[in-house]
From TrEMBL:
Organism: Thermoactinomyces daqus
Lineage of origin: Bacteria, Bacillati, Bacillota, Bacilli, Bacillales
PROSITE patterns given in the database record: NODB
Organism superkingdom: Bacteria
One GO location term (cellular component): membrane
Ranges for domain NodB homology: 69-250
GO biological processes: carbohydrate metabolic process
PANTHER family for the chain: GLYCOSYL TRANSFERASE-RELATED (PTHR10587), PEPTIDOGLYCAN-N-ACETYLMURAMIC ACID DEACETYLASE PDAA (PTHR10587:SF78)
Descriptive protein name: Delta-lactam-biosynthetic de-N-acetylase
Amino acid sequence: MKQVRLFGLVFTIICLLIVPLDAKAHEAKPYHFGFKKSKNGQLPSIAQEGFMEILKEHGAIFLGDSHKKELFLTFDNGYENGYTGKILDILKEKKVPAAFFVTGHYVKDQPELIKRMVKEGHVIGNHSWNHPDLTRVSADTIKNELTQVKDEVTRITGTKDMHFLRPPRGIFSEQSLAVSGKLGYTNVFWSVAYKDWDPKRQKGWKYAYENVMSQLHPGAVILLHTVSKDNAEALSKIIDDARKQGYQFKSLEQLKVKNYR
């Protein structure tokens, strides 16, 4: 009888140890953001990607109000390649707000462009200090990565608000969403994108224009990279022709309705 009781006690202890480990492994499971692209005006989808409910639970942004012809223009700024000034010129001329997700390298290297972004009314988002895979670092490291960017932007510009995060390479987990959420961040993904981040593989402004315009849909969150010459040269026409189709460009801070589909 004593042996039976001892076995039962050991089994219970093992179960108590295993369940938290399994839960932690589940929370740390990495997801690489992907989506079914919009075609012919149809809405994009993340329904088949396996993480839709996780994004919804944590209030992450994939798609805005799909009943309104609104567009949210966002840029990733890992490093400067000489085109951000031109992009800012166009945005100023066209009176279009945007969000720029910056890394530590960018903030240190381009303080004047950071100041200009803020001065001209754009959102500065967090893209982490060292651009790590946030699913492979500790909660403390995530906090440090994000805090360093926010503190440096505050030092340069005086602005203390930073509410949006784009995880490096679009890799995330339940843990990274939860940790960044506790720090006050909304994770921002995208519903329009194309392979534009390789400066050695630029294919001309028409290629950029056609890739963006062919994916436009109500509530679109557009991801572009400022290192792309094609994007800089296509941006003005993208803005003009999107407006001709009845679209309005809004700031991420104006995105009130989040859709998941």
